[in-house]
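Slide 14.
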Amino acid sequence: MNTSKDIPERIARLEAISEQYDRRIKVVEKAVEDLKNHVSSIDIKLSKLEATLQSVKGDIEESNKRSMWKTSLVVGVLISAVNILINLAMLIH
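Slide 15: predicted structure.
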């Protein structure tokens, strides 16, 4: 049976337990704050990476457009040359 002299001892144990939980909560709160900072850092890096990839994509698209223009020009010149050769061959015969 509990006696009145057990009450201060029980209160002391409860206070010790409460302090332990308070310390654990502070550790968890610090870890959560560190995670938030880390996630923020990752978000910033991802945003920079996304911007870089968009820039590279634009550069590739522009390069492809120029390549297609050059290819069209070369094909046009070749077709014209073939037509000239065909016409010359027809004139000779």
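Speaker note: The chain has a mean pLDDT of 91.
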